[in-house]
Amino acid sequence: MGNEHDNGNASIRSLTLMKHSQKSGFTLIELLVVIAIIAILAAILFPVFAQAREKARAISCLSNCKQTGLAFYMYTQDYNEMTPAINKTPDTPGLDGQPAWRPWYALLMPYVKSWTLFTCPDDGRTYPLTISKTSQSHKAGGGDVYDCWDDLNPTGLCISYGYNDGWVTDGGYGLIGPQITLAGITVRPGRSIAAIISPASTIAFGDADTKEDGSVGSDAALKWAVAYGPKPGSNNSQLESSSQLRHGGLENFVFCDGHAHIIRMYVAENSYYNLASGGNPLYIPQNQADATDWCFDPNYVSSYTGYGDPTSYPLHNNGETCAQAIADVYANSAPCTDSAPCSSLNPPSVP
Description:
By secondary structure, the protein is an alpha+beta fold. It has one domain (about 1-345). Helices cover about 25% and strands about 15% of the residues. It is built from five helices and ten strands, in the order H-H-E-E-H-H-E-E-E-E-E-E-E-H-E. It is globular, with a radius of gyration of 29 Å. The relative contact order is 0.12.
C-alpha cells in the first residue's frame, strides 16, 4: 500500500510539474508580440539616441567656440584692441616648404595652441596632406576638393569656422576693411574695437562651410559646403536646403567680447546672386534682426573699389550701408527647404 501511495503522489507531482512547465513557455503569438514591441521601441529610441549624439557634438562645437573666443579677446587686448588682419601676401613658411599667407585663425594659434579647436565635430570635410598645396588644389584636379588646405594646418581637417568678413564679403562691413596694398604687401586690415558700435552684439566668427580663408559672410559661408564648391560647370550636388545645415541650423557664433551663443540660420536663394547666374546659396539668420550682428556699424557704407562690379555680390550698388544691404538681401531672397530646394526657387524679382 505504501508503494502505491508513493507512486500516486509521484504521478501527481509529475503532472503538476508538466502543467507548470507548459505554462512557463511562450506561444508563437506571444513571441511575435514581444518582438513587435521591441521593434517599436527601437524605432522610437534610435532617433532619440541620434539626436542626443548630435546635441553632444553641437555642445562640443560650442565649447570650441567659447575657448577660441577667449583667445580672440586676448589677441585684441595684446594688439592695441585691433581685430586680426588678413595678410594676403605669402610670408609664412608653409607645410610644403613654400611661403603661405596668414588667415585670421593663424594669428590666434599662440593663444589656443591646438588646431583641433578650430574644427567642429559635425564638420566632416577633410583634405589630403601632400607635398604640394598647388597641385592638390581642386582647380588643378587635386584632392583638396573643398579648397580648405591652408598649408599651415597639419590635421587634414578643414577649418570649421569663418571670420566675420561682413554681412556681404569684401566690402568692409565686418571686422576687416577692404583690401589694400602698401609697399608690395596686400592686406585686409583689422578693425579697432573702439570703432565697433556694440562689440557684445558683433560676430567675430562662427560656424561656416567655407574655404581656407574662412569667411562667415552671407555669400561665402556655404560656398565650399560640398566638394568642389558650387561653381558653374561642376557636376556636384549643391547644399541647397536648410535641413542640411550643421546642428540642424542652430549655428554657433562667437562675439567680439569673447562670449558665444546660438543663432538659427537658414539657406536662401537670392534673385540676382543665384545658382543660375554662377552664385551660390546664401547663409542668413531666420530672424532678420540678428543680421545686424554681422555689421561693425550698421551705417557703414560699403566700398568695392578694386573688386569690380559690386552687383557680382548680392548687392545693388556700391553705396549701400550695412543695414541697407541686409534689407536688400532679405527683400530679394527666399528660404530653401527639402520640398523647395534652392535650384527650384524663383525668388522675388530685383526692383
